[in-house]
């Protein structure tokens, strides 16, 4: 078997066998196949694509290229949630305690911020004392005792994906459906959950900008799960504006806590309830309407808030954050405003630019080793369709002395469009793919 022949076969539109895919992926991981040949194969896949069976095989090989976590020490059916990334996306901080409060074990391994999207682990580390680095033994103990644990990925999960993604990033082959789906699902399969709820973002702040592409990705990921005898539901959600009202690490924790107290922004609450309901459905708690009623009861009765406090205490955080988040969380007291330059309605938001602008304040990373400032971020005062007057504040900017305020303002100015026409109302839940 030669790399040349496999590259040529895919370049000509052929279907690769399991042996051929495994030979290329594991050869690359082991250093036997050079970057230039793997890059050629990735480009061939980019133009000729993969069918459902090739995609499932690629995912399986990448998932088994490193550690595969065995969650059997945790009692009950394990349902994981994954978001394809957005701006202001703090849903895990609400959904995880919601689901755990209903008796479903939440064993969640999350990532850090990279690019224009935030990371759950960085947000949780805003809470003083909160430890996101747990041994697998401690991780299992916490889930069995408290019903919930959220930790950073310490295991060697899907190293093939890490190495191949870096090459995709350097060779303009990132945005191909099979490669995206295999990248996401290889880590999910290696994580050991029994079922998955996939929050597939679509719009200006999402990786997938069009509904057609987002639906294709959702179908691909659900198909991969089913091919590996796992249940999955994909929820297509709108990312044409920041999610909720806060963007930034401490600020998003504050919003999550307020939401668990029953004071969440309407669309954000709807998204959290929807995702949690589907997780409960996959866990076998009943039909989707029954699950929704259970989730709403947990949210508005305070059960989910108590479970969030359990999570904080179990992982060493200051429990006072639940009662007095504004005093416990590091939140900058330096606030400046981005204001409207005309009268009208907010008709369009380039949400990706909002996320990048937040990074220029210090809230995110461009490289994994970059340090972030938990105290900075945005409060979104005006959303899509809102009426604004000239010089009226649109965004409150929480800044520090290192923030690049000038460039952040420039990006916000480019991101927001104001017109005389009222835009149509945008729904947060666009579609469900099963």
Sheet-strand content, in percent, reads 15-25%
The CATH class of the largest domain is identified as: Alpha Beta
Q: Classify the secondary structure makeup into a structural class.
A: alpha/beta
Mean pLDDT equals 94
Q: What is the assigned CATH homologous superfamily of the largest domain?
A: Nucleoside phosphorylase/phosphoribosyltransferase catalytic domain
Helix percent reads 40-55%
Unreliable spans: none
Q: In angstroms, what separates the terminal alpha carbons?
A: 38 Å
**Oligomer state of the chains in this structure:** single chain
The Cα radius of gyration reads: 22 Å
How many distinct helices? Answer: 18
**CATH topology (level 3) name of the largest domain:** Pyrimidine Nucleoside Phosphorylase, Chain A, domain 2
Strand order of the largest sheet: 1-4-5-13
The beta-strand count equals 13
Largest sheet: 4 strands, mixed
How would you portray this structure in words?
- There is one protein chain.
- Helix content is 46%, strand content 15%.
- With 434 residues, it is an alpha/beta fold.
- It has 3 domains: 3-48, Transferase, Pyrimidine Nucleoside Phosphorylase, Chain C (Transferase, Pyrimidine Nucleoside Phosphorylase, Chain A, domain 3); 79-323, Nucleoside phosphorylase/phosphoribosyltransferase catalytic domain (Pyrimidine Nucleoside Phosphorylase, Chain A, domain 2, 3-Layer(aba) Sandwich), CATH 3.40.1030.10; 330-419, Aldehyde Oxidoreductase, domain 3 (Alpha-Beta Complex), CATH 3.90.1170.30.
- Helix 2 (18-29) runs parallel beside helix 4.
- The longest helix has 17 residues, at 211-227.
- The protein is globular and about 65 Å long.
- The two termini are 38 Å apart.
